[in-house]
Amino acid sequence: MSQVDRLKIIAEELRAGKEAPQFTVREFLSWFKVERRRYWNVLGIQEILNNARLRTEPDFESAYLDSNITFSLLPEETSEGLAQQVTPEGIASSEGFGTPSVTISAPSHADPTYRISKLEAANNPPIRVAPDSTIEEVVTIMLSNDFSQLPVMIGEREVKGVVSWTSIGTRLSLGKHATCARELMDAHQEIGGNASLFQAIPTIVQHQYVLIRSTDNRIMGIVTASDLSLQFQQLSEPFLLLAEIENHIRRILGNKFSAQELAGARDPADPDREVTRVDDLTFGEYIQFLENPEHWGKLNLPIDRKTFIKQLEHVRDIRNDVMHFDPDGIPPNDLERLRDFVQFLQRLKSIGVT
């Protein structure tokens, strides 16, 4: 069954008063034979949803990849007048939607904000204790799970406070006798799941955590300073690796070529751009320049040119994804490829080859 037929059936069931089915974002993307929410993938899927007069709840673009989404009917006035600009037959492929040959207007509900709900930690309901839980129970749970904070709650919606090593240590150091969680807890910090990640940063920095509350008022997760550090590593590492690779390539080319030779690698579609130094070339132009056997010979590198160029082409493809700010990040195998290539370039430098 095609994704268009599947969505048509869902729309018909909703109009008949039936309850909408639930799927994870990852499952939903698989209908379109894509794994990641690249810009063109999202735009194409939004167009198909609009044609089916459907939208996802929450928006599949801003939700965590393995969280559940459902469907609701799109108000008629929202979908009227928006012509279908991507044909169902031409969008799904093993590599995604690709760049459309026509102009596509972004749907009015497209969400450009990087919301805290996209984090894995924000979608794992935290372990909690009741207000009358004993101090032994609290300490055992925190030690055995390596927790720094532990929510004190009644059910999954009502938060009474949070116990932390700081709250425990402060009371004990001041001679305060405590036997249960309610006597150890401090006021809690929380933020809505729809909040921007950057809205949450000051609270996390100050208190080392923040509880995440969902739209149905449940505590859906807890994001700690460690989670935040990991997230920024995942977001920043590809950029840093690509920057190092480019700096290595510039160093390899060095001052071995004239401005005229370098200008010969300039993109013919950009004839007015001045190219006098290696730094003036784009990454694609580095590859084109090194493909020339005469240029490669001047470098006097004891490595295979074709293999090296092939690796650079892989890096260029990954670079294109990274520079489009894919909200799901790059696949682990692509990140590992960047790490390996950086290590290779570092090794060439350390042994004096470059």
Would you write up a description of this structure?
It contains 13 helices and 8 strands. It folds into 3 domains: 108 residues, no CATH class; 107 residues, CBS-domain (Roll), CATH 3.10.580; 121 residues, no CATH class. The chain is flat and about 80 Å long. Strand 4 and strand 5 form a beta hairpin. It is 44% helix and 11% strand. By secondary structure, the chain is of the alpha+beta class. The longest helix is centred in the last third of the chain and has 29 residues. The strands form 3 sheets. It has a 3-stranded antiparallel beta sheet with strand order 1-3-2. The protein starts with a helix and ends with a helix.
Tell me the domain tally.
Answer: 3
Helicity, in percent? 40-55%
Low-pLDDT ranges: 78-94, 99-109
- Total beta strand runs: 8
Largest sheet: 3 strands, antiparallel
Cα gyration radius (Å)? 27 Å
User: Percent of residues in beta strands?
Assistant: 5-15%
Distance linking N and C termini: 55 Å
Question: What strand line-up does the widest sheet have?
Answer: 1-3-2
User: If you average the pLDDT, what whole number results?
Assistant: 88
H/I helix tally: 13
Q: How does the overall form come out from the CA principal axes? A: flat
Q: From N to C, what is the helix and strand string?
A: HEHHEEHHEEHEHEEHHHHHH
- The secondary structure category is alpha+beta
